[in-house]
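ok trying this again, last paste got cut off
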Amino acid sequence: MPTISQAHSDAARVNGAKSHGPVTPEGKARSSQNGRIHGFTASRIIFHTAEEQADYDSLVTEYTSHLKPGGPVELDIFHQLIHAAWRLRNLAVADARLYEQAGGDPLLSENPDIEKRAALLHRYRTAAERAYHRALNQLKSIQNNRLYREQFPQLLPSDAPPLANAERFSARTQANLRSELAQAVKQAETEAKSFSSQIQEMLNQFRK
């Protein structure tokens, strides 16, 4: 005898086989928006029209021209940044439509569906903003490090790891060099004073 979970699974499979999707125009319209609605949390981007694809390609071109990512690590972070930027643009459009539908601030709407949708969009937007700024800061850090390595290769060991923080390494190296130089100068001054004292003592003995 099948278990309750197995019975539910079998029933779901039978019902799924009978279902051919929404049949009314309203149902089909809602179904067509599922990808857009849930796409705000998806890890991949789904384009519903050629215009969306063109807009996304334009976004990638603009960001590539401005940020000039290089190397596999920078490119991976760059694509995370693009994904977050695209989500933020779509969320802004969805937010504007919801404002229009609510006739004002959706969060103040008396319609529970609109209020729920507004809260959901706010949560998605907050997550997208965090992802955007996190990726931007990571990319900035890696590119600053790359630029420093290119400009001051003499300050780094030849076998330095690619992701090692070149600026901090050089700063510590220079600090150590300054400390060693200061100690050397102090020692030289001490030795000079001692030598001068010995010369003066020799001159005094000679004059006697």
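PB: full thing came through this time. Helices lie at 4-18, 25-32, 34-38, 50-67, 71-102, 112-151, 166-207.
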